[in-house]
Give the backbone structure.
Amino acid sequence: MLRRLLPENCEDSKTDNSFTRGNVIDPKSKWRLWCPFQLYRMFSWHRYGRFCLLMNCRLKSNGCLQLLLLTILITPILGQQQKFRVTPYDLQVLEGAEAMMRCEVSNQAGAVQWTKDGFALGFSAVIPGFPRYSVLGDRKQGVYNLRISNASITDDAEYQCQVGPARLNSAIRANAKLTVISPPGSIEIQGYAHNSKVEVRENQDLSLNCIVANAKPPAQIIWYRGNVEYKEGHRVDKVEETSSKRFTTKSTLDIKPNADDDYTEYTCQAKHKALPPDMPMRSTVQLSVLYPPGPPYIEGYTQGEILRRGQTLELVCRSRGGNPPAQLIWYKNGSQIRMAYRTAGRLSENIYTFTAEASDNNARFRCEASNVMSQTPLKAEIDINVLFAPTHVSITGSTEARVGDLVPLACSTAPSNPPAEIKWMVGGRQIRNATSKTTASPEGGWITVSNITATIEPNKRSLVVICHGLNMQLTENVVSTHTVNILYPPSPPIISGYMAGQIIPAGSVQKLLCVSSGGNPLATLTWFKNDKRVNSVIRTADKSVSAEITILANVTDNQAQYRCEASNSATEIPHFETTTLSVHFAPETVKIRVEPEELKPDMEATIICDSSSSNPPAKLTWWKNGIPIEGINNSSKPGLWGGTVSTLEFKVNITQEMNDVVYTCQSANEALQRSVHEAVTLNIHYPPIFHPPPSSTAVGVEGESLQVSISAAANPMSIVYSWTKDGLPVPSTSISNGGAEHRIYADGANLNFTKLNRNDAGIYVCEAKNSEGSAKLNITIVVEYGTTIKAVSENVIVNPGEDAVLSCTVEGKPLTEEHIKWERVAYDMSAKTTTSFMNGTSYLKINSAQREDVGNFRCVADNRVANPTNRDVLLIVKFAPEVDKSPTFLRAASGTGERGRLPCRAQSAPKPSFIWRQYGKELQVNRTYKYEVEEKKIDSLTYESTLIIEKVAPADYGAYECVVANELGKTTETIRLDITSQPDMPLSLNVLNVTHDSVSLAWTPGFDGGLKASYRVRYREASREQYKYIDSLPNSHKLTITGLKANSMYLFSVMAYNDLGKSKYLPDLQRAQTKEAPPPSKPASSLGVPPTTSSTPLGGTSGLLLLVGVVSGITVVLINVFIIGCCLHKRNQKRLKRGLEILTEELTEDPSTHNLVILGISMAAFGFLVVNAALVAWFFVHNRRKKAGSDNQPGKTATIEMYAPSSYNDTVTGETLSSVSEKSESYSNEGSQVEYTDEARKKAVSTYLVESTDMPPPRYQKDGTMPVVYPNNIVNARTLPHPRHNNITNIMEHRAHDDQILINKGVYIPSPSPALPQDGSYYNMNSDRYLSYPPMDYPPQLDFTVPPLPMAHLQPISQASIISGNSMIGSVGRGSGTLRRGIMRGVVPPPDVTQLTNTSMVGTSNIQMLHELHQINISNNSCSTQTTSITGNGSMMSTIPSSTSKQPHGILKDPNRTKPQQQLLSANLVGVGVPTATGSLQILNIPTSAGISGNLLMTTSGAYDPANLSTFNGTSGATLAYTDADGHLV
């Protein structure tokens, strides 16, 4: 029925809402969608239908009642219909601002919400998804305003306020549009920055593009020219949408600028309603219009104006307009004169200032103006007129004339404007009839010329002519004077200073004087020598002139004619005088000719000497090595300069040995006592000949480098060496083409092995070639390498009583029977064994081998080339089993239910069998799980069987029998299995080592109770009852106890403990006495470096105290001065400020205060100064005392002092084992080369241990000597030869391998050659030689009756001593003597490092020790002797120096020797064994002239002559020893 009440179509004019019958019931109707829910439920048409059905059922018969009821229900609703009190309206807001969309409803019944472009925003005040949106207002008042904060372009939309239907109220709605405006984001004139300058040519098209971007709505563009809106140009505007609802406006303005647009600004302005009017958005450019300048104009001079020379004129050229401003240039007569100009705006100016000169007359000055827009320059010109007088006049004509001559003269003026007039004055009279001529000058002005003729009158010496030039308009006059001299001839010259026939020696000075008088002018004197002009010294008087020459007479002056000529202008032919000189001269050069030019052996050569010209004739002589040689065919002939040329020759048969022989020819002028020399060196061509080497065999060590050097003599010396081996060439470079290094390569005559290999041994052939032929030399290379045991016999098994033979095959070179030995500890090898050697295999035969012979025999191979090698060979002699009855093998323990293990260990040969029994019954082992047996082989003789009992039960405890049997017998041993318990007490306790603060212990463990046992040691001092305890490490049976008192007796005991308990301690029966305490200072190292002390009064604390004291004193004085100065300055400032008004109190108080401060600071400073002075005085006094004390004490060397028993024993027991062997390894010499470790040295015990290097002592043969394998087989090699193979009869006869290392790794520095003697020779300029004349007698060569010691200054002393074949540095014993540390490092061992352990001597050569030998006098140019007397017992009685001691000068520097060692070695020479047959030892320094490079010489012989070393070598039985320049014994 309600549907029928609704009209067919009803519209709301206010809200534009439309309701129809159709959309009311349409479920998709917008009206239904926005209808409030309750209202829809209450008044839905479905309910209305049901309602009608009900009413029809009940009131069907009463239609009027039904209509009445509907009217009652609808009437109240239609009477109060909801409506908008404030209808939403369109709104415009700026982007970023706040927008408020108003909506107010009266009689609100339905729900209210906002929509945006049809999208419902919801009924909540806070709108989800739109954080900037909110609904403000009051529901009761019907206010629903929509607020949008920070509005953006996305908010630009159509909004609708909707009120839904309710209680028969129809829905209403109202639309409002929100427009969000956005100002432009930027404005620019495309291509130009704001306020930039746009350069454009005049009348050239210009387009300005203005872009206003990102505006909403689109912005408008306004163009301005200057400040006026510009509407004239062609303009195109365009709007583009760049992004959503944002627009960019472009405006193009086309203009054609002219000159008026220069400096004009064009502005593009954006017009937009979002922009404030007072802040417009603009972009401006300024035009710079290029156009030509205006015409130039000149100021400062008016055309026709008259200028005088010297007047200053300023010409100003200006030009207005033009962009860029005009460039102004001044030109004078077409030449540019000034280009500098200045501008001010569009005005250009060029000012040219100058002083008018004659050249400016009629000159045209032009100013040109131009710029880049000018096609041709614009010009302005003026012509200048300048008046000037002539600057000078000049007279031309003859300056000399004779009496009666007519002399023409001409006078001309310089340019003048107007022309000048000329006036003449001749001899004081004016000439009035002179003619003149005027011509134009190219430089401007006029030149006037006048000519006259003057007559020379007698009785005058000169005629004076004057010319005047006058400019009548300027009244200026210039004058010129000309003098004509009247000529008269001079008198003839006269020569003095030399008498005819006088002899002048060449090289002397001779003066000649020439004099001439009279004449006008005075005569000109000229000297000539053989028609060649000679410079002279001219002296002039009033009426005469002289010319003197000084002659340094030489060969060209002999018979030379000297002529003096006198002339002047009056003489046609000069007057002259001559003289001829006679000069004696010596020959200048000597030339030697050899015929034929190419010399070869077995030919006769003629050597001819030609002397240059000499007066009188020279005398020729031939010399060879200072000995005259008689010549033949002496002849002479006329020579140059009136002298005589002489010739002398001699003949000689050429041999190869004459190559490089020098012959000297002397030419002497006996009258002058002068001579010249010339020498010729014979150049004889011959093929190479090798210098014979000491041996054709070179020996090297495998792995080391070797260089074989040979040399050959030949002429020419361009020798090409090539090396081959087995016909194959040896590479000549160390690096191949592929970059690999050659191990063997040849370097000329040197054959280099970088790392020797045993396969390198063989014969190498060196071939030397030159242009004359070739020669070959074979060199045998022997490569030594250490021994290697290649094979030994396997375990040798023999029956008792049989002979056993053990073999050991060794490879090495050299290898002899002596290099292989057999050894066994505690076994008498000589009783039952014999050895044999064959083909590198050593055989050891044991005769009738028995049980006691079973064991390892060690084969030791050592050829002293490398480290010894050894291998053990086991000898097994069959024997019956022997069970090990140690406590640990006779008992076993296990807990109940655990696994029990019973070991049984036995030795047997051959292998035994094991049987286990219990109670006499053999156990069924390995058959059930109860019993198992594990058998293993411990070593070649030892076997072990372990019985394993699973889950031990009480019945399993008890005794078990282990039966061991082999083919030679059997044995039975009982082994008990007990339950686990506490351990047994250790069986024994031993002392291994004792030092001053530690004791090393070792013990033998007892039965461990079946569990892992640990051990505890207790100890105490013998004088005390209190024990100290210390536990050992697990599984260790040794312990070192530290922190003990020195020189104290301690008692030690040990016990064992495990998890079940502990044993008792052993009785305190083991005791040990610690050693004495070590010295508190001077700890030294094996390097011999002086020790450093913990406190040094002079070097440490005292120096620091002294420094602190001095610095403190100086600081306090400076502070004192500064504070006093500040106080005085402050007081003076106060006085100056207050002037005369200073109060009496201030005058009495302030000075006292300052005085007290000053006095206190001064006293403190004085106190510090006193302390400072006391510290300095104490320092010097203490220093002197220490120096005096050190002078009274003999020098000591630092050693490492290890503490061991006082006596040395060959065998070491547990009680006396020293800690040396353990601690000496820590004192290693870093500079030493660790080659190998000598086991024998480790076992040695010494009170003093030094030089802890890894080099072993020399090894001897059975007779105590070193083996000689390759006698005399040393080739000249740069690396020092293998010293052990040098059998030269000198003090270096044999050398150990350790000494070879010292040499091979050292640096070989040969002795310098002696300087040439200064024999008074003089220098010959022609031959560039020093030659002696007359010949001098040269001293004979030093003659050594015994060959000098080779490389004695480098080779260290080894076991072949400097005294005898078996004496040695350090200590040497004969017979049973023990060798003690005979190893040297470098050249000489440090002092105080050796000890003689056996003082027995054999024979008459008593070996003594020299301790703390005083410094030796060493100098390179002096000889000194120092004699030390030695008594029979080796004590030093006296030292008598024969010269003043000097500090040694080092020549040879050992890079491995540290500075303290150098000081130590230069000050002391210790441990040198010498014979005392004569009772004294002389240590001499040999001067360099003796040929030994300043080395020291030691001898026991008598007198010594420094000039002749043969006094030593000639002495029978005298033994020499050398030292190097550092004082080291070599």
Notes: The chain has a mean pLDDT of 74. The first strand starts at residue 9 and ends at 11. The two ends are 147 Å apart (CA to CA).
